[in-house]
Design brief:
With 341 residues, this protein is of the alpha+beta class. It is built from 14 helices and 9 strands. It folds into 3 domains: 6-100 and 151-184, no CATH class; 115-143 and 214-270, Reverse transcriptase/Diguanylate cyclase domain (Alpha-Beta Plaits, 2-Layer Sandwich), CATH 3.30.70; 278-334, no CATH class. The chain starts with 6 loop residues before the first helix and ends in a 7-residue tail after the last helix. GO terms for molecular function: RNA-directed DNA polymerase activity.
Length: 341
């Protein structure tokens, strides 16, 4: 007896969508071992995924777990390559349904957005605030242990306001619960988690911009900034945000603070004022240590020139968007790479 699915789920499991999801998942990783092994029998493997999705028997595989320490410690659960194809297939179809609901000034994990654009948006808000208000203040806040604290019931209450397809919801729930999380927490290394994280805090975005009437608000994942006309207004906005966050089963980071806008705002890797943008001091100290270490490694033959060139290009890409000429000359001027014997 043939199985019938809703139009939404049928689009997710469509073979052409799985093929496109495979290409997106493979991008930049085609020479990695697990990618090469999957690609040897590509059509057979994609058909296998398709059949499991059709019959509702697909289950997440065992993730690869590791810890990163930059910019802060995070425990990562990287799903297997085949699983990531399923994640891409789901997100490709459902993301547009949520994208049209997101506010303009939500910048993480969205096409045409990103950290740099978030910083530019913040600077424009600061410039307008200084023109219109005598002593503007800034709320700088983030969510405590965000990914690890997201409750699945609260998340899917938000998702189900947009997606009603049972098969699609079942698949998404299976992914969410499939990497060692039992009712709370999302796997940091999963594409679906990025979309889910935005869906979760979209509720905060609308509560602040629509409900609390905050006109100058910008968010990058779980970090958000509110620019207020004075200190009292900043406290009212912060209290409203804290109440909304608590209603989502989350909590603000204790380091959340209110500061005068004239002091500059540390956000998305930069320190931003209405008049200029500077690199974060700790990022520049870290870069100096990195280049000193690389000088020793290159002299000892432990790293190739290509590795050095990539790190220099990355550093210049970071600093070109801010006032950092003297620091860049100082850091790179001290980094003389000479091949040892």
């Amino acid at each position: 007896m043939p199985i019938t699915h809703s139009d939404l789920f049928a689009r997710i499991i469509d073979f052409d969508n799985l093929w496109s999801a495979y290409l997106a998942t493979r991008k930049g990783k085609r020479y990695r071992r697990e990618v090469a092994e999957f690609s040897v029998n590509l059509e057979e493997n994609l058909i296998n995924i398709h059949n499991h999705l059709v019959w509702g028997s697909w289950e997440p595989g065992r993730p690869r777990s590791f810890t990163v320490f930059e910019p802060k410690r995070r425990d990562i659960q990287a799903p297997p390559f085949a699983d990531r194809i399923v994640h891409h297939a789901l997100v490709r179809v459902v993301e547009p349904l949520f994208e049209r609901r997101f506010i303009y000034h939500s910048y993480a994990c969205r096409t045409g957005k990103g950290a740099q654009r978030a910083v530019w948006a913040l600077q424009r808000m600061l410039r307008t605030a200084h023109r219109n208000w005598q002593t503007p203040y800034v709320v700088k806040a983030d969510i405590k242990s965000y990914f690890a604290s997201i409750r699945h019931d609260v998340l899917f209450t938000a998702i189900e306001r947009v997606v009603s397809c049972k098969d699609t919801l079942d698949l998404w729930k299976r992914i969410t619960a499939g990497y060692g999380h039992d009712g709370v927490g999302l796997p940091v290394g999963a594409l679906t988690s990025q979309l889910a994280a935005n869906v979760m805090l979209d509720q905060l975005d609308h509560a602040m911009t629509d409900g609390a009437g905050v006109g100058r608000y910008v968010r990058y994942m779980d970090d958000f900034i509110i620019v207020a006309p004075d200190k009292a207004a900043a406290w009212r906005a912060l209290n409203a945000a804290a109440d909304t966050v608590a209603g989502l089963g989350l909590a603000l980071n204790p380091k959340t603070k209110i500061i005068p806008a004239k002091c500059g705002v540390d956000f998305c890797g930069y320190r931003t004022w209405a008049t200029h943008i500077l690199p974060r001091k700790r990022n520049m100290r870290k870069a100096r240590r990195m280049f000193r270490r690389m000088v020793r490694q290159y002299a000892a033959g432990q790293i190739p020139l290509q590795y050095v060139q990539q790190r220099v290009a990355s550093f210049l890409a970071y600093t070109k968007h801010c006032s950092a000429d003297r620091s860049v000359r100082s850091i790179l001027g001290d980094a003389v790479f000479i091949k040892g014997e």
